[in-house]
């Protein structure tokens, strides 16, 4: 079954650098980010994991648990984490799934079907750079896929988390290039009468476009 926005994130059990986990139990009542990496000891992946570790407070402040995945053995992960910490001057304190058999990668359709060089010594594909944002109900709310050659923009990942969480709490959507603190769009399902109560002073640009101050 293909995964879509709104799908329940498939559960799995796996070895990680922080011990064995049941994915749904790991998420608990939090938001979560699952993100894949083609392989250990690679330059782009090393910088990405360092960036996630550097921004651990940003994720914690938003109630988000982070979990990485790479298609290598657990023993390789443990050695690689030392490199990540040294290169980026960080402390990687989130788990990294050891998916050398590609079970989780296949479950989430993260294997590379484009780059014929992104394979291991046996010719088995590594993963692309997938990102899944999952809410406390275990529902997939965002999926982004980058090619193995392109590092992810974690400003964008955090921006989307802010938008999703704000939209769940208030009856709003967010415009192009929105950032935390910017004006928001009053949800089309909210009448003008309701909008006056919910967003005093909102402004009407067009009947279908009403802007309000951010509820943050």
From TrEMBL:
Location of the Thioredoxin domain: 3-166
GO molecular function annotation: peroxiredoxin activity
Annotated catalytic residues: 45 (cysteine sulfenic acid (-soh) intermediate)
Keywords: Antioxidant, Oxidoreductase, Peroxidase, Redox-active center
GO biological process: cell redox homeostasis
Function as written in the Swiss-Prot or TrEMBL entry: Thiol-specific peroxidase that catalyzes the reduction of hydrogen peroxide and organic hydroperoxides to water and alcohols, respectively.
Keyword Repeat: no
Full protein name: Prx1p
Tree of life domain: Eukaryota
Species this chain originates from: Rhizophagus irregularis (strain DAOM 197198w)
Family: Belongs to the peroxiredoxin family. Prx6 subfamily.
GO cellular component assignments: cytosol; mitochondrion
Family annotation (Gene3D superfamilies): Antioxidant, Horf6, Chain A, domain2, Glutaredoxin
TM stretches of this protein: none
Pfam families, per the entry: 1-cysPrx_C, AhpC-TSA
